[in-house]
Amino acid sequence: MSGIILHHHDPSPFGEKIRLALGFKSLSWQSVQVSMVMPRPELAILTGGYRKIPVLQIGADIYCDTRLIVRELERRYTEPSLFPSGSLGLSLALASWSDRTFFDPGAGLSMGLNKAFIPKAVIDDRKSFFNFMDFDRLESDIPHLYTQFRAGLALVEMMLVDGRSYVLGCAPSFADIDAYFPVWMARANIGNAAELLEPFVRLRAWETRMSAMSRGVRSEISPTEAIAVAAATMPLEPLGVDHADPLGFKVGERVSVTPDDYGKIPVEGELVTLTIDEVALRRRTKEAGEIVTHFPRLGYRITRL
Q1: Any bridge partners for residue 293, and if so which?
Q2: Which of 6, 122, 134, 141 is the most buried (most CB within 10 A)?
């Protein structure tokens, strides 16, 4: 089995989600540090231009979106399970809350409170990326953003209200990683995070346990080395197309896949997998040969070219 390569940058909250998942499963993995801003030409060879971070690479298969990445890790490395006691559906539903309702105001605070210190190149990049932020009124929105983020913290406190150690009970799971990564972001980027978190006693004790978790065994490689791994590997056999799918696509059609929230850069390719959970495109590149780029169905729009 080809090794795990994570394309990320260390300040990325969504990157922290996957670093925690890798550590949860005690996996060794290779890290490719990518720029915080576009362009990312080496990564684009593998993804076809997908904008979001992180991206997981295993050989010539490229997995986009943390929701799909964790499912692929679970499929390949079954123990210990990120989704104990049949909690896959619950955890992925919780991700829809944590990835937007909880994350968005935390990201707004991270940008708004630090806007004067953030390099112009980063601000300009995020203006084109974070379409849920109004950068012209970001600083004046700070009180509102605090109210929204505090409400998210209160929900996590309620998840632990009966004294349980983790969201689903006595052991950690992906549900905890879902709920934790915006808190991790706040500690890193919100100057008064200690004061903000002070009222949430159970959350703070849980946060300490989450912070102490492993991030796996990490080693660094270059983007060029990651491309060479893809070039030396063939993608997995595709799953084919569900003929009952409402879109009516067929294997081999040229399509594009685009996130429907933000970072709306389409990726084009030949359709090889279309299930209720996943869509995958085959792309042929000069530098890396044949690549298959995988996306979740939920939150992505597929268009015939």
Answers
A1: 62, 281
A2: 6
